[in-house]
Design a protein that fits this description.
Blueprint (H helix, E strand, L loop, with lengths): L5 E6 L10 H9 L2 E4 L6 H5 L7 E4 L5 H14 L2 E6 L9 H10 L3 E5 L4 H9 L12 E4 L6 H6 L3 E7 L3 H10 L7 E6 L7 E6 L3 H7 L5 E6 L29 H4 L26 H14 L48
Length: about 350
């Protein structure tokens, strides 16, 4: 048993509830307090994993001083706290400063890595970002970085999270660093979430695309030859081109429930849609639910005196008596003589 509280910095992945790691889901299920930002992490990710009695704190509505007070309270009351970060908590999100603060307060601290937004975006477009003929390195530049031009001079694949309102300045630095206007760019916003947006464009058209889709919040941009869309073949004998638009994936049971508010703690039935097939059982998700229940409810203690197992044994049947037939004739017994009466 620990003598102090514990704070876990958990990477929640790109946002979808089923893209969090099993360890991250377990940390949320164990937590007394969950600190998260609804704008960055899907509400379903918290509702599906957190305990019903857990304290949920909106990170965007508290001050840094209030967060520090929560850490102090956790140390004094031996509470478990989870601080959720979008993407991978081990590679960004200001985790280092918070981590060191918790260590100074005497708390147990661990960091649970998650699926990065860059990996989710690359998987969405089906491109490998580190192809040797296109790039040797993926450079992730934070929004506040002033080194975008220097990164662009290396002509490698760049993954940058930039506020949509600063897209014009970002494009200027890309062009100044040597990227051509025809360089491919992928705009990825809220990848894996129900309202995700993934658009293929170029450096020259990037600013207009961002304005068209009204992207004002931080958005991920993948820049470089590695993210160029693959060329599709057109059959000469076919009357219709095989280059058809990609159909959008049908929403899953988890994404259809994502619009439900976090205040609704019960598992209400999922509304059926006419074009959606019935949801298939997910073995991986069932495994998550099983260990969630093991954390939320103490395991039943085994019976100290188990009942003996009954073994049915077939009873031996008695042998029938042996009857032997006799061929000898039996002699008749002589009849008993009556006593004579005496003469009077």
């Amino acid at each position: 048993m620990t003598t102090t509280g514990r704070v876990s910095f958990v990477g929640a992945g790109p946002g979808a509830a089923d893209l969090i790691t099993l360890r991250g889901a377990r940390r949320i299920a164990e937590a007394d307090v969950v600190i998260w930002a609804p704008s960055a992490v899907d509400a379903e990710c918290v509702r599906d994993h957190a305990r019903a009695d857990a304290e949920l704190v909106d990170f965007s509505r508290v001050t840094p001083e209030e967060i520090t007070d929560m850490y102090r309270r956790a140390a004094a009351s031996r509470q478990t706290v989870v601080r959720l970060h979008a993407g991978d908590a081990a590679t960004g999100g200001g985790v280092q400063e918070q981590h060191d603060l918790c260590v100074r307060l005497g708390l147990e601290v661990d960091v649970v890595p998650g699926v990065s937004v860059v990996a989710a975006a690359a998987a969405k477009i089906g491109r490998e970002l580190t192809l040797t003929e296109a790039s040797s390195t993926v450079l992730i530049s934070p929004e506040s970085s002033e080194l975008v031009r220097e990164f662009a001079e290396l002509q490698t694949t760049m993954a940058a999270t930039v506020s949509g309102a600063r897209t014009g300045q970002f494009v200027e630095k890309l062009l100044a660093g040597g990227y051509a206007e025809t360089t491919p760019v992928v705009v990825a916003y809220k990848v894996s979430q129900p309202d995700e947006l993934v658009v293929q464009t170029t450096v020259g058209e990037l600013e207009s695309v961002v304005k068209l889709h009204k992207l004002y919040r931080p958005t991920l941009f993948l820049v470089g030859a590695a993210v160029k869309a693959p060329t599709r073949r057109v059959s000469a004998s076919a009357t219709v081109s095989v280059d058809e638009p990609i159909r959008a994936a049908r929403p899953t049971r988890w994404s259809r429930r994502a619009a439900t508010r976090i205040a609704t703690r019960t598992d209400e039935p999922v509304p059926a849609t006419p074009d959606a097939p019935p949801a298939e059982p997910n073995p991986a998700w069932n495994a998550v639910e099983e260990f969630q229940q093991s954390v939320r409810k103490p395991a039943e203690e085994p019976d100290p005196k188990p009942k003996p197992k009954l073994t049915v044994v077939a009873a031996e049947k008695p042998k029938p008596p042996t009857v032997r037939a006799s061929t000898a004739t039996q002699k008749k017994k002589p009849a008993a003589r009556k006593p004579k009466r005496p003469n009077s």
